[in-house]
Design goal:
The structure holds 3 protein chains of 3 kinds. By secondary structure, chain B is an alpha/beta fold. Chain B is built from 9 helices and 12 strands. The termini of chain B are far apart. Chain C is built from 12 helices and 11 strands. In chain C, the strands form 3 sheets. Chain C has a 4-stranded parallel sheet, sandwiched between helices. Chain C has a 4-stranded parallel sheet with strand order 8-7-10-11. Chain C has a two-stranded antiparallel ribbon with strand order 1-2. In chain C, α7 (208-215) links the parallel β7 (191-195) and β8. The chains are: A mainly alpha, B alpha/beta, C alpha/beta. At the A-B interface, α9 and α10 of A face α2, β6, α3 and α4 of B.
Chain lengths: 350, 257, 314
Amino acid sequence: MLGVRARAAPLALAGLPRLPWLWAAGGVVALLASAAVGVLVGPVHISPGTVLQALIGGSVDPGQANILWSLRFPRVVLGAIVGGTLAIAGAAYQGVFRNPLADPYLLGAAAGANLGATFAVTFAPGASLIGVNVVPMAAFVGAGAAVAGAYALGRTVSGLRSTTGLILAGVAIAAFFNSIETYIQQTHPASIRESYSWILGRLVTAGWDGVVLVLPYVVLSAAVIFLHRRLLDALMVGEDEVTSLGISVRRVRLIVVIAATLGTAAVVAIGGTIAFVGIIIPHTIRLLVNRSYRVVIPLSLLFGASFLILADTAARTVVAPAELPIGVITAFVGAPFFIAVLRSTRAAAL
Amino acid sequence: MSHVVLSGVCVAYDGVTVVSGLDLDVASGEWLSLIGPNGAGKTSLLRAIARLVPFDGEVRIGEDPSSALGARELARRVAVLHQEPQIPPGMTVSQYVLLGRSPHLGYFGRETGRDRRVVSEVLRRLSLEGLASRPVEHLSGGERQRAAIARALAQQAPVLLIDEPTTSLDVGRQQEVLELIDAIRLEQGLTVIAAMHELTLAGQYSSRLALLVAGRLVAVGPPKEILREPVISQHYGAQVKVIDLNGSGTAVVPVRA
Amino acid sequence: MRKHHPRASAKLACLAALLVALSCGGSSPTASSSPAAHFPVTVTAPDGTSVTVEHQPHRIVSLSATGTEMLFAIGAGAQVVAVDDTSNYPANAPITKLSAFQPNLEAIAGYTPDLVVASDDIGGLVHGMQAINVPILIEPAAKTVDDSYSQIKQLGTVTGHQTEADALVAKMRSQIKAFVALVGHPSRQLKVYHELDNTYYSATSATFIGQMYALLGVSNIADSATGGAPDYPQLSAEFIVSSNPDLIVLADTKCCNQNLTTVASRPGWGVISAVKSGQVVNVDDDIASRWGPRLIDFLQAIAPHVQQLEKQAA
């Protein structure tokens, strides 16, 4: 093989992106701290000592133990799973679409999940299949169907040569699904509140069953996205350039979209279509730490999880004992925070 | 093994033929420049060789038709220096050059010490070591072009395709870049196929020129044979004077009637 | 649908018989109008606008499910030509595809109505009806039982069924009084959780349905939701479980198919006293969300449970 011959040269190469240990440690600390806040704060006051006792298996008042183990702990774990998954799925979508405004719902996953959930809420209320409530199932199927539909449509329109065709197909699918959803809601006002409440997002009813239900999907999704960190970095150069580096952009895009959609569909199925996490978390990390996906993906997982645990804690305490939809919190807190980050680092262009 | 043979290559976009029935042999270690007026099909031909566009006919890289090579195998044999590389925001020079190792890695593979050594060596050869940690977007035009060359060299491919390497560079940087490519070509026996706009420079650096007009090969040969006043006037529709520079090539100078 | 209680008192049985009589009478429309009907009449709708009806209406369109129930209960059913797609009671109401949420003015006008009854002015409904000179009466969601009574009376006035309307109101008053007397004075404060759907939306005592619990002397756990919380707050599961309500009323049996089994299977809910003792009442979503004559049916479903709980407490 001709070319540059490798001679003895220093192994350490300056300027390669590495996960900064300080940020990684900070992410772990943030996750633990927000989990601590999540389990300590709630509409029912339970002392930190009791929470600790419950966690280490000590003797605790059965009523409080029930609240902690059946309701609060699974909800914190669910918050971490949903937040982490949405954040890395968002980062992955931004990577393969090379579009800073991409989010996990770009190809219609949210519209599909909402339509599926609305269908189930309206036509099969309270039904379950093999012991699992049909609403999350329908949402999962809806999200997957929407993205598959967008892909199929995008292929017929542009042959997947450009991402624009695919994105427009996603927009069209989302609009189409939204119109059906609105029609169903308008013609079945009895279930409108339930489907609306689902759309705004909630981590309310799932419990440990929800955790068990989504875990296989989110683990698989996260693993595949993690394995694509190098390729997502490569996709930051022009499409022709990537191709001439021997990387099939279409294949990477398809695999990453499938993986990200799998995780997104699973978490929206149990958490509703929580907005904003998939955009603000990865972008904040890009602006504050590094734009390499070797940094963005792991830190998005940690900070996305922390962010959603805190958002959910706020959702169940701000107007306690009532709850706010978590999507309201993520957008209300997330948007100004994101603007602040943008303004303070205006040198870095999107 | 690094010669390139084109036979009957046709490229068409939406039914409009831009390269038709082109045959061309490029010898191993040669620098062949594609010249011709705008829209002659120079870039399209390069894209066909790099398999960035669908085409009819056959392109052989060494002994193998390119259609028989996998994407990574092709990228291990042919590196491309694109006309306007897209600069990824925030990416450092070493990370950028490390992307050139992609063809040598499996789909889920990660770079090893060997890959970093290759990059380190390339950076040293192109005097980019001092800039390794700088974001590419902060470099000057000439430095960016050097970083792009470094990335292509990190591919360790025997064939280098270059599309208008000197656009938007000043004359000093143009010379610098071309000298660098030529030096490396000679060191490593690279086969260089370049689309060139600037005829004087094309003549000075190429062993042969291939003149394309409207997608057809009009003439191939050493610069002296191709860069003649009647040929240029006829195909470029330009008033030029060709001046012999006494051993350092020929200058093609536009003249005003 | 309602739970059967073998130890229901004689007093209750008596009451039930009375109520059946009432609801039967209420749901069958009387073709004739009151002889004492004098038109034109002018009424002041709850929003303050005055509505004049020139002649006794015979082509009423109702876009309000509660309005439909009221009209039929006061014997004006025969004058109703069309009701909206949510007006599913009584069964002989002329249900159509007319939507109260997206009212189609042309479709409404197509019935050549001489009176339109609705609960909300959506999509320029009032303006549109005025433009074609059709009197329209907006009877919005009642906030109190008295609001409900005055709506019934008002509908009596504009349809020429004043007498029947007055009689219905009087009957309802006495029924409610009977229920209140039945449950007596609780020795211990009983707590209720009223569920609107399976995402735990509930209703405070500021709402119409919430006041029914106040009437029966039961405290509503949703009332703790203060501050920015709305009248229909979404409660957190933690709060519901820790409030440990004695009675759970499911007004999401139709929308969401909820029942004692589904409630008991929710994580952490098994320990709630209402769940342990089976005091989970299924009510018809529609009855629990309307402010018409069937509120008596609602009370009839709830009162025996309250009475039983009180007995246990005593």
